[in-house]
Give the backbone structure.
Amino acid sequence: MIIKLKLLLPSLFIALSTAGFASHAEEAELNEDADEMSEMAAKPKAKKSSKGKRKQEGVWTFKMDNLRASVGAYTDDPGPSSSVDLFGAASGKMQTGAWEFALGARVDAQTQGGNPDFTRGKLDYGENYARWRSDELRLTIGTQTVLWGRVDDISPIDRLSRVDLTRLILDKQPDRRRAVPAVRMERFFGDYKLDAVWLPVFESAVMPHTDSAWHPVDRDRERIIGLGSVPGISGFQIHDDEHGSGGGGLRLTRTGGDIDYGISAQRVRLSLPYYQLGAGVLTGVHPYTWVLGGELEMQMAGATWRAEIAWNSDIPYTTTAAELRKDSGWDWVLGSEFFPGDAETRVTVQLAGHKTNANGPILDRDEWHALTGEVEHPFSEGRWRMNVRFSAGLDERNVYFNPRLAYLGIDQHEFFVAAHLFSGTEKTLGGYYEDKDLIELGWQAKF
């Protein structure tokens, strides 16, 4: 018997109770997270000539980019009781003439107490590339972060990025993406931009430790997210099938008008695994799919409206007879961002949906709708910020709720307390993790 689990990107972060948003209109301390997307959508400006800048050409500059430490306590027994997460990222850059070079690395460490427990540390690459640029063209070769799309957090066309699932959805979307080996050409024509990306080497998602509370396979309790109970998998090994190219895509966008829009075509292998059960091994496979997408953004009625829709040629699913099939399907998101009242409170709301054109009854959820959102309010002259992210399934009970209070009174530093609360039916993300409610204390610094 072969059983497959669909962990497609929008399905995981929308239909299965995904988390909030990294808005395009965030305040200065969060703009660093959104800069990657805005930079990719904007035309590079001509370099200004100045003495100070000329002195820096040909000289490497290194800095610590980001540091984070958090301690968490799980509120349910039995199972994991505590967790500690540490993260640090550093980079170096050099520019000489039309050339720019970057080096980057990051280190992640986690430890989990209770049953099961583990400790793990991993070193990974960041952005390491050589880039040549002019006023109309930018060519980048090396590991880089590629984020496509306009809607917040759960873009249906964001398929070229490498997902970081180490902390599931506890962090905002930009912090859940890693650099990936790529060759990228960005060509600018006035208000238009043509973006072409090729992934010569496939890199699958960065997964949690197999004993982590956030892993999508629970061998101790013999469960797989999306399928529920799967007897007999407690002794199975977990293997990821990584080989070949990651695919590529083309995207044409237009910005600067009353309505910004874009179209894209991708032939990609999805970063998140689709698990196959058989012969004592759980194998995460990454089938190719065509993704044809459309997007738009506009200002209307005092709000920013964003929408995306994507058609997928090959969505894998499993029939009730345990037969693997692939059929086409749709993912779509309609979102609005606005500032009610005193204009300091920011509200983001998104309605998302998915449909698989399945042939016959299947084990996967072939259709669902979800409402996701975020409310953010700074107070005490910006020294404090209250933030609430939420997601609710509209077809089945499937809830994620994430209140967070942060102190920002020290420049470049943030101290926070947060809760991550899950609830839902058996096959949803909220139901799978409903005994993993977490209270978290942490600190982070961005430089």
User: Anything to note?
Assistant: The domain at 3-46+66-446 is CATH 2.40.160 (Porin). The helical segments are 9-15, 28-41, 51-56, 429-432. Confidence is low (pLDDT under 50) at residues 1-55.
